[in-house]
Design a protein that fits this description.
The protein is α+β, with helices and mostly antiparallel strands and 137 residues long. 26% of the residues lie in helices and 39% in strands. The protein has 2 helices and 5 strands. Strands 1-3-4-5-2 form a 5-stranded antiparallel sheet. A hairpin with a 4-residue loop joins strand 4 and strand 5. The longest helix has 19 residues. It starts with 9 loop residues before the first strand and ends with a helix.
């Protein structure tokens, strides 16, 4: 079942940065929380907000369609990070979230993320058709 997505709905998710989520080019050893990893955690927070509150039927989920995020501060491995996602706009099946990530000292990232609500089986069918078309080229 899909419930109406409400503007203002919020989810806060807590993570601990691990070595798999860091850059590898700055210096030897464990490094800092990478931008792609921060964005991935932000996206998953938005996805979980939709799944837990509005898309509880397994036939429905969401996919990312837009990311506009700033990575503001470096965060070391094993640091606790809090990610907050708030629904700020709903247009049909497109949901826009405002994001903020903080470590225990300061804001480390912020931005906007858009997700599209999908029917998983319909999405899979369109995707499989695309694979067939690509294979025939």
């Amino acid at each position: 079942m899909i419930k109406k997505v409400l503007i203002g709905a919020t989810k806060v998710r807590e993570i601990n940065v691990d070595a798999e989520q860091t850059t590898s080019f700055l210096w030897e050893g464990e490094n800092v929380f990478s931008t792609p990893s921060m964005i991935s955690e932000m996206e998953e927070t938005c996805r979980l907000l939709l799944k837990e509150e509005f898309l509880q039927d397994e036939d429905w989920d969401s996919v990312g369609t837009l990311v506009n995020v700033r990575h503001l501060k470096a965060t070391p491995v094993r640091t606790h990070v809090s990610i907050k996602a708030t629904v700020v706009n709903v247009v049909d099946r497109r949901i826009t979230f405002e994001l903020e990530a903080r470590d225990r000292l300061e804001k480390i990232g912020d931005g906007l993320h858009e997700r599209a609500i999908i029917n998983v089986s319909e999405f899979r069918e369109r995707f499989n058709n695309k694979i067939k078309k690509l294979e025939s080229l």
